[in-house]
């Protein structure tokens, strides 16, 4: 019996020592858990800010793509409208308009050197 009594007592001493170690180590483990939570929160906030910035950049790119797509459609309509006219067509860009609503004057980037004359009809894709 004395041998088994010693092993039971030794096991009890080891288990007791583990419990004491666990209890004394508890504040350090709790602090590490809290510190890792704050570290994780800080990392999440930084990542969130980075994603917000990236989202704004992507929204800007998407708006630019939409504008370019719309311009592309309009230019294709202009090309198709020139095919409907049997005469020579000169493609010009509108660069200005008269603000007076009673005069229908526009400024284009073509002139006499390009064969354009005053009073010549203008064809628009929407027409």
Describe this entry's structure for a reader.
It is rod-shaped, with a radius of gyration of 40 Å. The protein starts with a helix and ends in a 19-residue tail after the last strand. It is mainly alpha-helical and 127 residues long. Strands 1-2 form a two-stranded antiparallel ribbon. The model has no long low-confidence stretch (mean pLDDT 79). It has one helix at residues 2-84; strands spanning 94-97, 106-108. It has 2 domains: 2-84; 88-127, no CATH class. The protein has 1 helix and 2 strands. The longest helix has 83 residues, at 2-84.
Descriptive labels:
127 residues; mainly alpha; 2 domains; two-stranded antiparallel sheet; 2 strands; 65% helix; 6% strand
